Amino acid sequence: MLGQPSSAKLRRLIEQYENKLQALEDRTSFSSDTVLSLLLLRDEIQKTVHNTEAISPLIVQKISYFDQQLQQYQDEIVTLNDYDQWVRSIQPQDDAWWWQWQLPHKTTKWKTFLDWLINILILIFSGFSISLIIDSVPRILSGGLDQFSVLTILIPSFVALVTTGKLTPIGEEFLNSLFANSQRKKIFIFVLSLLLVISLIIIHKNYNQLSNYFNEQGKNYYENNKLDKALSNYNRAIAFNPDNGEAHYNLGILYEDLQELDQAKTEYKIAGKQGNLLVRLQAYNNLGRIYLINNKYQDAIFPLLEAYNELDENKVNSDVDFQKAKYMIYTNLAWTNLGLKNYKQAKSLLLGAINIYEEYLDKLDQSKDQEKHYKRKGKAYCLFAQVAEAQNNKTEALKYWSDCIDYGNNRYPEEYIWVNVAKEKTQ
User: What pLDDT is recorded for position 291?
Assistant: First the structure.
């Protein structure tokens, strides 16, 4: 170590460094000789720094300040024709950063256009994604706020915030820490915005499938007596596809169970217009039944006739569900005619209902699998007894009151009442 002499030399070299930088600043062009002498002087300063025992903070600050000035001329220096040859000849140390410069990347028109295009596409994708998120949020929330709704809203919303650059300062700092290269960050955001918009478009195109899924979920919850979850899923099914007639029908059943009859009637009316044939038959039948229970025979006849007129033999096949619906339409329409004192028409409908039951539904009640049992034959017999009694045919009435007791299903309010009446009549 040379001690003080080295310190004096270092101060002298720094003064020369300052002068050469000043001279460089005053020049309109860069000569190879001027630049080479400046870079070699910087080599000498570095060597002297290594050989100096103690360096004052002031000297360190000066070196740092003048180095910053030198770095400002990086592009001009590195583009000199002789620069690469100097580096090969000198073979500088790794810490000699002034010899490590690379040629600046030239910004081509194509690259400029590509950057512009990526920025525009990110903006378009992000805007479209936000509009799709806004469209889906009320549909998801229609079933209430739960874990599903929170996740399905937060995840795409967070991704949208990333792609639009609307993160908090902490979020931006974290994102920047992942991508030191701004170009890589831009490409990442572009790919992310593209994936987000594709995902949301796929979801949007499959709203009907989502509606069917939530409808099935609602049915499962309903069968397990989880009515609140069933209600949530039916509402989501309808929100994703308002034309899902089956979901409206199922929601009507649920509202009827909850004794919210006005809402049940509304859902049945919608299902009667939008559902498939089976759903329409069931919806109109249930709507008519609500009116019948409240003795509104004039109101009941319209939906029941609507269903009856759709009982085209070419469309209503031997499928059990169709035959159940047909049986109920016949019996409820007979009930309506009984209330309106059209006894002949009521009797004809009940005979038809009994024929349907004996041909298609008796086998369900005879099945060993009790879950398949229908147990609704008593409805026709109970009504038949009332028609016969209204016609003063006491012998026939007594027979059917007896059948009403044997086959009546006390799970249903009207049959429970009729069975008790039958017991009084047969005593």
Answer: 97
Could you give the CA distance from residue 245 to residue 249 in angstroms, rounded to a whole number? 6
- As to burial, measured by CB atoms within 10 angstroms (0-12 exposed, 13-18 middle, 19+ buried), residue 55 is middle
pLDDT band at 137 (very low <50, low <70, confident <90, very high): confident
Q: In degrees to the nearest 10, what's the CA dihedral of 170, 173, 179, 180?
A: -170
pLDDT at 313: 60
Decide which of 205, 226, 245 is a domain's last residue.
205
Question: pLDDT tens for residues 150-159?
Answer: 777 778 877 7
Q: Residue 418: pLDDT above 50?
A: yes
Q: How many CB atoms lie within 10 A of CB 130?
A: 19
Helix (H) or strand (E) holding 106: none
* Alpha carbons 238 and 243: distance in angstroms, whole number: 7
Number of domains in the chain: 2
Is residue 356 within 8 Å of 323, Cβ to Cβ? yes
Give domain status of residue 365, yes or no. no
Q: 14-22: list long-range contacts, CB under 8 Å, 24+ apart.
A: 14/45, 14/59, 14/62, 14/63, 14/66, 16/41, 17/41, 17/42, 17/45, 17/63, 17/66, 18/62, 18/66, 21/66, 21/69, 21/70
295 neighbors 314 (Cβ within 8 angstroms): no
Q: Does a structural domain hold residue 76? A: yes
Confidence of residue 342 (pLDDT cuts 50, 70, 90): very high
DSSP letters, 341-374, are: T-HHHHHHHHHHHHHHIIIIIHHHHT-S-GGG--
Evaluate if residue 172 carries a pLDDT over 90.
no
Q: How confident is the model at residue 3 (pLDDT cuts 50, 70, 90)?
A: very low
Is 215 inside a domain boundary?
no
Full domain range(s) for residue 40? 4-99
Angle formed at CA 285 by CA 319 and CA 259, multiple of 5 degrees: 120
In a domain, 394, yes or no: no
Closest Cα partner for 62 from 98, 6, 11? 11
Cα(397)–Cα(405) distance, rounded to whole angstroms? 12
- Alpha-carbon distance 265 to 280, whole Å? 13
**Which residue from 78, 69, 68 is spatially nearest to 105, judged by alpha carbons?**
78
206 contact partners, CB below 8 Å, separation of at least 6: none
